[in-house]
Amino acid sequence: MLPGSSNASEKSLIAREQTLCKAYQQRVFQQTDRMFACLMVFQWLAAVAAALWLSPKTWAGPVSQTHLHVWSALFLGGLITFYPVFLALTRPGATLTRHTIAAGQLLMSALLIHLMGGRIETHFHVFGSLAFLAFYRDWKVILTGTLVTAADHALRGFLWPLSIYGVQSHETWRWLEHAGWVVFEDVFLMISCQSSLRELRGICYRDASLEESNRELEQKVEKRTAALQEANARLEALATTDPLTGLQNPRAIVAALDQELERSQRYGRSCALLFLDIDHFKALNDGFGHAAGDSALHEFGNVTRQCLRGIDTLGRWGGEEFVALLPETDEATALEIAERVRAAVAAHSFSAGGGAYVTCSLGVAVYPDDADSLSELVEAADKAMYAAKRLGRNQARSINDPLLQTLDSETESSREELALQGAADALARLVEARDAYTSEHTEGVGAFAVRIAQALELDAPQIRLIGLVGKLHDIGKVAIPDAILQKPGSLTEEEWVLMRTHPIIGADVVSRIPALRIAAPGIRGHHERWDGKGYPDGLAGAAIPLAARIVTVADSYNAMTTDRPYRRARSAEEALEELRRCTGAQFDPTVMDALERMISEDAARSVYRKAA
Q1: CA distance 150 to 178
Q2: DSSP secondary structure of 328-397
Q3: N or C: which end of the chain has fewer CB within 10 A?
Q4: What is the 3-state secondary structure (H, E, C) of 94-149?
Q5: SS3 268
Q6: Helix/strand/coil (H/E/C) assignment for every residue in 461-507
Q7: What's the CA gap between 423 and 426, in Å, rounded?
Q8: pTM of the model
Q9: How many CA atoms lie within 13 A of 450 on its CB side?
């Protein structure tokens, strides 16, 4: 802490200590004022009672009259009592009030001494009054009472000694003896007041220090709370936001789709999905660099967002693909919005390449008219988008467009199927040329994954897709160095970081081949875990593509039941037990159920063949 800061802090503490001390003294003054108000009223009544008891009447022959002492006690005592009590009730805590009370209290002592005939014991009332005045913790009040007592003794001692000493004559300076005893008491009372004030200031200083410490602690807690809230907000944003474009990521989009489809089903309303893909984006990336490509993706998101309605949700699906969720929207309105987006993108001058122009292709599908589930809706919109590309790009097409039926009938059973299989075989040969073990492993995983898909009673297109994902799931390992891929021992953390990139690389490779693009999500997600602790995207549960969940189980089972460079193969029973242990954490329970049914059926058939 800087010296100037320390001095300022000390001054602040002293100022606060003085404030607390004044407040406490003021409370003491008010409480003591009220105490003396009650005490003085009681003393007045006691003085009247004493006067009536001691000398109620005097006699002059047959005539009697009330003694003067009674009237003195009644009227003079009332006069002494009234004003201090009035001030205590109307101005409690004021300086005038406590000094008036001090004077009145000591005058009441003088009256009582007079009523008692100047008896020596009544003089102790003076000492008691001064002791009570010490409750104020103000030596000035004691001084006021002392001066009143001294003046009373001096005046009455000379003019009427009988009223104060009980004798007709007295020594001239006798009042000094009484004053001396009063001063003797005053010394101790004033020392006590000063000591009490010092103790009070110490307590107030500690309270001020404690308040300052609490204030600093509260400020630190507030700052840390704000920092924690900010960090939580950033984490929430990272969990639901694509860092490149600032739009929602696939996880957030899937959650929004789930919610909107449920709402649409509940209220019987439709919602539409746009699937957008930037045309020739690879050429843009290759021609101007990845930085320009990233900038184009960000600008594309902004342009598209401006064309959508406030209730619509836009997100990045992956690569150059985007999706837009349009609630409360039918097919005609969705096509109008899609065309508005297409025209705006085509007219926009992108900063990449110094003002390049790009186009996009859009597909439109509507729930529940075109699909019964989320996956079917996405698949339909994606299919419509690819149709737009095949029809020339830079256009929007609905899944119900008649031209799509023509395209399906012309290509589904011939060129596309052949292109799909040819591309998959070419990539598989590439893996085989690089690593014979990986090639053998992927072939086994593909076949095993198909059998699991059949046990799940999936339809033929889905089974073909799952076989394709299983066959190509490790294609990304072609980018992993041999020293890591074929290392006989455990990998280091740095080597694992590189190894974990192979799902991303594999998905990126197949997504660049139109016929294989459909397999990219499954390849990217085959190392995701059911509990969300996998990689590369941390997807969980049903957010992981079904093909990836099936291939994950097939991949793990195959890996455990075959020899690896760093360990021997496990038995089928050991591998199945390990899979069971990780079910619900790493593996989808439904897929595991299908695997166990398949293995049970295989075992039953084996027993039957042996018996035969």
Answers
A1: 8
A2: T--HHHHHHHHHHHHHHHHH--BTGGGTB---EEEEEEEETTS-SSHHHHHHHHHHHHHHHHHTTSS-EE
A3: C
A4: CHHHHHHHHHHHHHHHHHHHHHCCCCHHHHHHHHHHHHHHHHHCCHHHHHHHHHHH
A5: coil
A6: HHHHHHHHHHHHCCHHHHHCCHHHHCCCCCCCHHHHHHHCCHHHHHH
A7: 5
A8: 0.38
A9: 12
Give the list of residues 6+ apart from residue 164 with CB closer than 8 angstroms, or none. 110, 113, 114, 118, 152, 153, 156, 157
Query: Which portions of the chain are predicted below pLDDT 70?
Result: 1-6, 54-70, 73, 116-122, 157-180, 237-238, 353, 391-392, 402-403, 405-426, 428-441, 443, 563-567, 602-612
Closest alpha carbon to 284 in 346, 356, 392? 356
Q: Give the SS3 label for residue 421.
A: helix
Question: How many residues does this entry show for the chain?
Answer: 612
Count other C-beta atoms under 10 Å from residue 521's C-beta: 24
Radius of gyration over alpha carbons of the chain, in Å? 49
Structure tokens at 468: 């394709």
User: Cis (ω within 30 of 0) for the bond into 536?
Assistant: yes
Tokens 């890996």 identify what position? 559
What tens digit of pLDDT does each residue of 374-387 get? 889 999 999 999 88
How far are the Cα atoms of 282, 440, 528, 530, 547 from residue 525, in angstroms, in the given order?
A: 23, 21, 5, 11, 9
- For 320, list phi and psi in degrees, rounded to 5: -100, 15
Token pair recorded at residue 173: 């300076």
Give the DSSP H/E element, type plus range, for residue 323. strand 321-327
Query: 469 exposed, middle or buried (CB, 10 Å; 0-12, 13-18, 19+)?
Result: buried
Separation CA 380–CA 154 (nearest Å) = 116
- Please choose, from the candidates 162, 315, 167, the residue with its C-alpha nearest in 3D space to the C-alpha of residue 249: 315
| Amino acid (1-letter code) at residue 534 | G
Kindly give the interhelix angle for 546-560 and 436-455, rounded to the nearest 10 degrees.
120
3-class secondary-structure state, position 434: helix
Q: Which two tokens stand for residue 126?
A: 């003076």
